[in-house]
Amino acid sequence: MKIHNSHEYIRERAENIVPSMRYKKSEDFFKWRDMAKKKLTELLMLPTETCEDMFSIIAEKDFKEYKRIDFEFQSELGYFVSSCFLIPKNHKGKTPTVICIQGHSTGMHISFGEAIYDGDKDLIAGGRDFALRTVSEGFCAVTIEQRYMGSAGHNEEGQPACLSDNEGMATLLLGRTAIGERVWDISRLIDVITKYFSEYVDTDKIVCLRNSGGGTSTFYASCLDERIFLSVPSCSVCTFEDSIMAMWHCPCNFIPGIRKYFDMGDLGCLIAPRKLIVVCGIEDNIFPIAGVEKSYEIIKNAYDYIGKSEDCKLVKGNGGHQFYPDDAWPVIRNYLK
Q1: What is the pTM of this model?
Q2: pLDDT (tens digit, 9 = 90+) per residue, 284-304?
Q3: DSSP state, 49?
Q4: b vs e for 211-237, b when ≥16 Cβ sit within 10 Å of the residue's Cβ?
Q5: Preceding omega of 251 cis (within 30 degrees of 0)
Q6: Buried b (16+ CB within 10 A) or exposed e, 81-92
Q7: CB 253 within 8 A of CB 179
Q8: How far is it between the farthest Cα atoms of the chain?
């Protein structure tokens, strides 16, 4: 068959390629996991140089239900990340701590339920006030400004630079990826909160929870950083062919060469045996449910094989591309008992 459409040709090729590093039941799972993590680290082109964190508190503010501590830290030499730590007023001792990071939005203020730009109220109504819900559940929350989003990069309307100006692609010229940089910042954030907020953080129960582009960062960070006890990626786990290869997506989603080795379902196996909740919307038109279910089936098979079937769940929301807190939180609470 002759194909003259270049996009159709690439999709056709992808559909006929079985990922070369897909887990096979004949393999030792944990040996495979070690090799796959090494390969994923290579593909993400993570930064490699550590530095002093230069942690500093910027401000502290009391609210009715929680206290908020604004802080920053040095993730790479010369690059500082803006973050906030929320402590519920009824806090006692060390508690599970939830890393709440926005996807493609105007910034981490959405997690606090603060509307600054046009459209913010719609995002908040769509369940993205992650930090507020977390403290209402009695847990500590921490937010972070993702690279190329919010105060880390936006246009005059507050839209993320990776989406509006493709700024996240410039990093490819340095042999890096936007997702890799975001994953690096998450791991450095965990270093910081376990060091400076140790009186609040139960280090055995660190949760990563996000939606859309934030869900993507959650997913990849959870594949690599085993300190994440529970991973809750939302509206982001789907086959590449059904999602980012099928339609327009922000360029920051793309990792050069990854489809030769893995699909997202294969990567999800790296989170095992830790706990995983995949959240999706049955009417999500950019991460379609069919692709989500294909990916989840691969992940679930790995959990079944190692005897951890109950530590992996798929939560389906009755709607589109948004978070579903009332569906997800009962499962989260159960895992955090």
Answers
A1: 0.95
A2: 999 999 999 999 999 999 999
A3: -
A4: bbbbbbbbbbbbbbbeebbbbbbbbbb
A5: no
A6: bbbbbbbbeebe
A7: yes
A8: 67
